[in-house]
Amino acid sequence: MPRIRQADVEEVKSRTNIADVIGERVALKTAGIGSMKGLCPFHDEKSPSFHVRPQHGYYHCFGCGESGDVYSFLREMDHMSFTEAVERLAARIGFPLHYEEGGGPAPETSGRSRLLAVNKAAADYFRSQLGSPGAEIARRFLGERGFDPAAAAHFGVGFAPQGWDHMLKALGQQGFTREEMIAAGVVSQNQRGGVYDRFRGRVVWPIRDVTGQTIGFGARRLFDDDKGPKYLNTPETAVYKKNQVLYGLDLAKRDISRGEPKRVVVVEGYTDVMACHLAGVTTAIATCGTAFGSEHVTVLRRVMGDDSANGEVIFTFDPDEAGQKAAVRAFAEEKRFNAQSYVAVAPDGLDPCDLRLQRGDSAVKGLIEQKKPMFEFMIDRRISGFDLATVEGRVGALRSGAPIVAEIRDRLLRPGYERVLALRLGMDPADVHREVEGAARQARRTASQPQRTYGAEQAPEQQVAAPAVTLGSLPPTPQNARERDALTGFLQYGHRVDPELFVRALAVPFHHPALEGVRVTLEGTDRTKPGWALTVVETAPSAYATLAGELLARDFPARDEEHAVSSINDLARQLIIGALLAQKNQLLGAIQRVPADSGEGRALRMQLRDLDAQKARLTLDD
Q1: What percent of the chain has pLDDT over 90?
Q2: Which pLDDT score is estimated for 185?
Q3: Diameter of the chain by CA atoms?
Q4: How large is the average pLDDT for residues 140-168?
Q5: CA distance 221 to 229
Q6: Could you read off the pLDDT of 527-552 as tens digits, one per residue?
Q7: How does the average pLDDT of the chain come out, rounded?
Q8: Is the whole model's pTM more than 0.70, yes or no?
Q9: Bridge partner residues of 315 (DSSP)
Q10: Which residues lie closer than 8 Å to 428 by C-beta, 6 or more apart?
Q11: Number of H helices and number of E strands within the chain?
């Protein structure tokens, strides 16, 4: 059966008001800020427990637990297929759908070779334009980042001139049709059928597969009047699948496979890859407009070899909150590697490109050599929000950190990390060992539970079933109430929260495991994409999915949206201040254990003053 293009699926959903569709079957009434409710259509009830949030395109019943988006509603109510649901809604709003024939690789005779030819021709065109008078801004951009013409040539960097049809005309003169250029993703088509250059006024990097064939492009905005995204990539095509592509792998694969140990360095951007390679770290690669995921692991394992137990995968992250979030995502995929994984955190907020520019090639090499084991990094991150000066804080940190150690497969490594955790917490190693063993047993029990199944068309990854946590099952403590309300506010009004507060508050670990599970999922979700709150519900661990849905659907305690936003910002400040106070208590304890006039003592007091200053700023903003 032909598949509907994914971009069309998302566009139809974004244009459809879920309350209008559900309202044709259920009498919905306003119920709190941004919420509507009515009697559930999926089970009999006397009091309404079925909530709809139009802004998020989501519904949830607190009675029977049914939840989903507008497509799942139609599928459940009318017993139709996913495709039929999309077609019905598209017809409802008058949106023309585009289809992809088949689901497997396109035969060469059907155009794959032509798509590769289009991309090659486009790469040649971009590269030739880098020397044109209009590309001065692109050459200056590269030069300011330490890349000379030879470096640009080595990586095939080019320039897309301003204008709407330069690429279209250039490739058309070479015999390529508009349909082929659209299919390759180098031009776009509007709803009226007009075709125009996708990349305009940008510096352009060719994205190659592991064999060196150009399959797509990444481009950075250069002009101030360009209102498009800072980075723009080729859309998904028959040859370009962003979840399977790693920028720079064509250049790095030889040194990766020949290294001893085999080493891969995962950085965050095109210029970082360039900087690493030019600095001598020739095994650097990067994802292309998406988070590092399981399919990237598969690609790397093929390059490293299945016998790569002695290999190293080093992730470089900025020390800011975005970098911390990327680290969490990377850790989620760590167990898929045979190789050992590490984290290298750039100093002073410098990425590899800036680090090379300011401190030279040796600093980039030094960054990689100062790597920290991924498990140690994650342990430190997990326990960072607890007050280790108190018994309760140490116990909470142990319960939070033990599952990390329990995930270590290596029988010789795990006892070592138990000792690391015990040392961090100042606890008896025997107590830490018992907690780790308990976490490991719980993980095995969870893994042995029957798996949830899905329809073939939905086909998400199967998730392990576990007893569902709900709002009603949370212990009624002030701490849980604060974290519950914070998550509710973040999910419902995250787009209205002060961005800096939002990111900092999301980095604070929560105390209840279920609320922590939802927080980690929210922290790891790309919040630049429409419908991200629903994505949190859909990607949360199965035991916490119902809780995530309830948090998104429940009424936030405020009389109107403005008061809700104000209250949520206050909650964010409270979370951050709580974390700062925990750090302060740790510092006070550490200060008492070192001589006051020692260098370490002075450094600790400086850190203490910095924490007090941060707290004061947050209090003034309150």
Answers
A1: 35
A2: 94
A3: 78
A4: 95
A5: 7
A6: 888 778 888 888 888 888 889 989 99
A7: 84
A8: no
A9: 266, 343
A10: 422
A11: 26, 19
The label of the residue with tokens 């025997």 reads 430
b/e string for 135-167 if b means 16 or more Cβ within 10 A?
A: beebbebbeeebbeeebbeebbbbbbbbeeebb
Six-digit token pair at 482?
A: 């604060």
The residue among 617, 606, 527 whose CA lies nearest residue 573 is 617
The CA-CA-CA angle for residues 283, 284, 290, to 5°, reads: 140
Q: Are 469 and 543 in contact (CB under 8 A)?
A: yes
Of the ranges 39-53, 334-348, 422-436, 574-588, which one carries the lowest mean pLDDT score? 334-348
3-class secondary structure for 185-225? CCEEECCCCCEEECCCCEEEEEEECCCCCEEEEEEEECCCC
What span, in angstroms and rounded, lies between the C-alpha atoms of 351 and 458?
Answer: 38
Distance (Å) of CA 336 to CA 226, 289, 290: 40, 21, 18
Q: Which residue has the tokens 């059907």?
A: 110
Burial class (CB in 10 A: 0-12, 13-18, 19+), 441: exposed
More reliable by pLDDT, 318 or 106? 318
Please tell me what DSSP assigns to residue 348: G
pLDDT for residue 454 is more than 60: no
- Bridge partners of 386, per DSSP, are none
With tokens 């250069």, the residue in question is 222
Whether pLDDT at 139 is above 80: yes
Cα–Cα distance for residue pair 42/74, rounded to 1 Å: 12
Nearest-CA neighbor of 399 among 410, 388, 383, 414? Answer: 383
Q: Which residue has the tokens 């390679």?
A: 277
Nearest alpha-carbon partner for 284 in 358, 359, 352, 370: 352
Reply yes or no: is the peptide bond before residue 261 cis, omega within 30 of 0: yes
More reliable by pLDDT, 95 or 622: 95
Q: Given pLDDT bands bounded at 50, 70 and 90, which one contains residue 306?
A: very low
Alpha helices in 305-412 (DSSP H): 321-334, 352-359, 361-369, 374-383, 391-406
Decide if 34 contacts 43 (C-beta within 8 A).
Answer: no
Please give the residue that has the higher pLDDT: either 203 or 310. 203
Residues 6+ apart with CB under 8 A from 219: 160, 199, 202, 203, 204, 205, 231, 232, 233
In the DSSP assignment, the letter for residue 557 is S
Question: Looking at this protein, which amino acid is placed at residue 270?
Answer: Y
Q: Give helix 6-15 / helix 82-93 axis angle, nearest 10°.
A: 50
The pLDDT of residue 467 is: 61
How does 243-255 read in b/e, with b if 16+ C-beta sit within 10 Å? bebbbbbbbbbeb
Q: State the distance between the two ends of the chain, measured CA to CA, in whole angstroms.
A: 56
Task: Write the CA distances from 115 to 36, 112, 118, 186, 249, integer angstroms.
Answer: 48, 5, 5, 10, 21
Cα Rg of the chain (Å, integer): 26
Distance CA 195, CA 419 (A): 62
| Tokens (6 digits) for 174 | 């070479």
CB 223 within 8 A of CB 137: yes
* Helix 513-523 and helix 321-334, axial crossing angle in degrees, nearest 10: 110
Q: Per-residue pLDDT for 197 more than 90?
A: yes
Q: What is the pLDDT of residue 110?
A: 37
